[in-house]
Amino acid sequence: MRKGWSATSVLVGTLVCVFASHHPATAETIVLGTGEYAPYTSAEMKNGGFVTEIVKRTFAEIGIKAEIRFMSWQKSEAAAEKGKLDGVFPHIRSAKRDAKF
Predict the structure, then answer these.
(1) Residue 68 in contact with residue 32, Cβ under 8 Å?
(2) What is the mean pLDDT of each run of 10 residues along the chain (101 residues)?
């Protein structure tokens, strides 16, 4: 087992808990934004990169389809702030983001 999988699993688990708790139970699709950060996330990679695949599979396990939109980090964060996306990943936590979200 690679060392990074443990941290990624915690990140994805937290992501799912946060979005599942704020997403209506009747919803079947969640729309998430992400940027280019290969090999974690990339529109050019198989399955969108390994973190994208983990996010999609994890949401599928709880019956939610994750629609992934690749865009710049700034655009994805702004779209989430305006409610156009349900969330973004994998962003690094910061005081500025904590104040927004």
Answers:
(1) yes
(2) 51 54 66 94 95 95 95 92 92 84 75
Whether the full predicted model's pTM is greater than 0.85, yes or no, is no
As to burial, measured by CB atoms within 10 angstroms (0-12 exposed, 13-18 middle, 19+ buried), residue 7 is exposed
In CATH terms, the fold of domain 3-100 is: D-Maltodextrin-Binding Protein; domain 2 (3.40.190)
73 φ, ψ to 5°?
A: -60, -45
Distances (CA, A) of 59 to 8, 17, 74, 79, 80: 15, 10, 24, 21, 18
- Which segments of 1-101 does DSSP mark as H helices, in order? 3-22, 50-61, 73-81, 95-100
Q: Is 64 exposed, middle or buried (0-12, 13-18, 19+ CB in 10 A)?
A: buried
Tokens describing residue 58: 């994890």
Exposed (0-12), middle (13-18) or buried (19+): which is 53, by Cβ within 10 Å?
middle
